Amino acid sequence: MESEVNGILVAAHELKAPLGLLRQLALSLDMVDERAERKKIQTQMVSISDKALKQVQDLTKIARLDDGLFEVEPVAIRAVCDEVTEELRYLFRFNHRNLEIDYRNRSRLVMANRELLKSVVYNFCLNAMHYSDEETRSELTLQDSGGKVRLLVRDFGPALPMDVWRSLKKGWVEKPTSIAMRPGSSGLGLYIASKFSQYMNANVGAVRHRDGTSFFVELPISKQVSLF
């Protein structure tokens, strides 16, 4: 019970933070006269609200995973990655970040739910954007790995704490967890990615680097032959 309550508190804290920031930005609009500066603030408000809405929607999906609404079927993983990176392209550029794409996988179809997989990729990429310095790059890579396709997102931020890395080494994160040195993002996003991956019979994990972290998910390859 205590563990469940702690997880709820972490989720509430992460969802509370963007609401507070939105309030500050809204109040600051009255003090800005320049059109360009107002446009910049409005763009920030839209991106913050979009992220918060997606997290709320994802938490709602987690509560409905047992209802059998999310069918696992062959999914073109490159198309999902293209869709996510296109959605985030402006946000990366606005924050002076660069996301490099490297598709090495020969297996184009994986067994997944497209909607849930898109949320996993989105959370990984957004996390990488937050924890890379300005003018630095993040990397999204697809590669074949032991009969599966590994989707890996590399950032160049603070090191991932050992306790979180050990949880991911098991293949999932059991509850939203606040992460030291990575405040306000990774905990809830990793929990969402973990729950969706577990539902799709995929594993999430992380590789700790001296200059950042790589988060990955490994998805079963579809035996269906692609026509493309």
Structural class: alpha+beta
Return the average pLDDT rounded to an integer: 80
Number of helices: 6
Main sheet record: 5 strands, mixed
CATH class: Alpha Beta
Trace the largest sheet across and list its strands: 2-4-5-7-6
What level of helicity do the residues show? 40-55%
CATH domain fold name: Heat Shock Protein 90
- Show unreliable segments: 1-9
Provide the CATH superfamily: Histidine kinase-like ATPase, C-terminal domain
Gyration radius, in Å: 18 Å
Order of helices and strands: HHEHEEHEEHHEE
| Beta fraction | 15-25%
CATH architecture: 2-Layer Sandwich
Give the distance, in angstroms, between the N- and C-terminal Cα atoms: 50 Å
3D architecture notes:
With 228 residues, the protein is an alpha+beta fold. The protein has one domain (2-220): Heat Shock Protein 90 (2-Layer Sandwich), CATH 3.30.565. 50% of the residues lie in helices and 21% in strands. It is built from six helices and seven strands, in the order ααβαββαββααββ. The strands form two sheets. The protein has a five-stranded mixed sheet. Strands 1-3 form a two-stranded antiparallel ribbon. A hairpin with a 2-residue loop joins β4 (137-145) and β5. The longest helix has 29 residues, at 35-63. The radius of gyration is 18 Å and the shape is globular. The model is unreliable at 1-9 (pLDDT under 50).
